[in-house]
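Lab channel / #folding
Pinned by the channel admin:
"Please post every new chain as: sequence first, then the structure tokens as a reply. Keep commentary short and put observations after the output so the thread stays searchable."

First post following the new format, from NK:
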Amino acid sequence: MIQDIQPDVFNNEYIPRAPRNHDYVLYFLAGKKVLVRNDQKTICFPTVKELFDPAGDQLQYLFSISGKRFYLASRCELPEPAGWHYESFMQLNREEPAAYRFAAATGYHLFNWYRRNRFCGCCGTEMRPVQKLRALQCPACGDMVFPRLDPAVIAAVVDGKKDKILVTRYRGRAFKGAALIAGFCEIGETVEDTVRREVMEEAGICVGRMQYYKSQPWGQDANLLVGFFVEADSTQSIHRDREELSAAAWVDRDAIPKDYSPVSLTGEMMEYFRDHGSPFSR
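Reply from TO:
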């Protein structure tokens, strides 16, 4: 998955440090685009020395990856300089360094949080960074906010006896590939209850046993995704939510494509079912 960057190590400990010339600066555009060098082989972000303008910018420390520091520029919508362009980080498919795709997604998560919390939601005063931890605090009323993280579930609904999995396609979204049932946790709800509710709402399917698989930070949308395999009888009729989904169908295990992207939790779970079958069958 996108966060599986071994042997690189992601360190999100918040220790504000003065930027060095060789540290990386992330410039973002709305629409999940990040500034990269015109290079078709590797992912190259600008360094402080290359593009940073101290007269027009401030830098906010974000995190480090294997000792390489990343900063966020306050002037994010920088016009494209010669030799550079904005590219969707969802399409940064160059081989190296793979960890930088994760850096772009996580940086975008923090970029959105900083820009959406410039002013206090209680009294309207401009917020200020807290020095010892990743937070913003109002100097007038003292209200403090931390980076937003929305819990959501991914449910791989499987029938192990018939080697089938419930596959969907979203309606009205940029992603047009095969997907699984997904949804956000509601107030007062456990993640297990969310799985049951979302499967019923989107597909009209009653589920039985449930097994936790993995979780995934998904900085593109400020989510923490929690993946479950859930068991169901594929003879149940599907009653698709036509506002949410353009398609929903039971698919044979051997029909899952071999080249399905493993970047996302959805992709890895589909690959797991294709290669190993239902976890409830063992």
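NK: The chain has four helices and 16 strands.
TO: also worth noting, Residues 56 and 75 are 7 Å apart (CA to CA).
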